[in-house]
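Hi all, long-time lurker, first post. I run a small reading group and we've been trying to get comfortable going from sequence to structure in the token notation. Rather than ask abstract questions, I figured I'd post a concrete chain and ask someone more experienced to write out its structure so we can walk through it together at our next meeting. Sequence below, copied exactly:
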Amino acid sequence: MKDYMSVALKAVEKAGAVLLEYYQRLSELKAELKNPNDYVTEADTASEMVIVETIKSFFPDHTIVAEESGVFEKEKKFRWYIDPLDGTKNFIQGLQMFSISVALEVSGELVVGVVHAPVLNETFTAEKGSGAYLNGERIRVSNRSFETAMIATG
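-- Answer (accepted) --
Happy to help. Here is the structure in token form:
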């Protein structure tokens, strides 16, 4: 699985660089409304293209399910899921809370996941059976009680 993780990391790093370029010139960015409260920009599509090209260069026979361009159906055993710009609305507003998400499913089981927040320089990774990490450091759930834990924010 190390090869899969390294490809996922390479893909999100390249896509992160693309998104940072667009982020530096947000005033020029055009956004389209796909559905109520759901936007797409050229940054979304450029990021997705880089991720798809990266994965295909290593695994040309794998299926890719991408948010903007749909499904590239190939090998059924391996299926990559891509959200090239999770938090487009935040991105458009110049907020730093957006990310890129890539996951790999093998035979119906999720085995690799990566979430990269380029402005924050944070990369969360997880592999089946290996735990979760933030920038290479192991992370765990806290031991707080349910009553004192933060579950979600708005």
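A couple of things your group might point at:
The mean pLDDT is 91.
The longest strand covers residues 75-86.
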